[in-house]
Amino acid sequence: MSNIADAKIAILATHGFEQSELLVPLKQLREAGARVDVVSPEQSSITGWDTDTWGEQVDVDVDLDSAKVDAYDALVLPGGQINPDLLRVDDRAVRLVRDFAAASKPIAAICHAPWMLIEAAVIDGREATSYKSIRTDMINAGAKWRDDAVVVDSGLVTSRNPGDLDAFCSKIVEEIEASRQDREAA
Fold first, then answer.
1. Which of 8, 48, 124, 182 sits between 20 and 30 A of 55, alpha carbons compared?
2. Which CATH class, in words, describes the domain spanning 8-185?
3. What pLDDT is attached to residue 172?
4. Cα 10–Cα 52–Cα 17 angle in degrees, nearest 5
5. Whole-angstrom Cα distance, residue 38 to residue 19?
């Protein structure tokens, strides 16, 4: 994996995140040199969902109200069924996703997390993938849905499930590098 030293990445999540879909990007992106903050509407920690039961707790680094797009290079949205379903009814979370899209900063969403892209109205006309059970939701929102491990469309990185995590994380790093080069060239 490439080096993205000095990059700052926000992982937006709440209770019920798919455990591997938060912990693996957190670990791999930190190993690539990034500073990664877990951003949440919760104050101290959030609890993951691990296959069929509650999983590990993860500390919250930044309160959602304090998270600002200009402080970060990219946004990562882990899936699970519970996490994005709770976040997509939180106007602050939806606004954060919309603001990242408006700033043309990379956004990465896996599994059910593309529900956030739908709610933020940033998926229409974009190539993307998701967990198979929300394929129709994606298509109805205007996505050009593909059944691939990872799909990239102008800084938007999407993947289907935990089996795609290595490809997902690699593409996040690539998109951060490309975004930084574009900003430096501008």
1. 8
2. alpha beta
3. 98
4. 10
5. 13
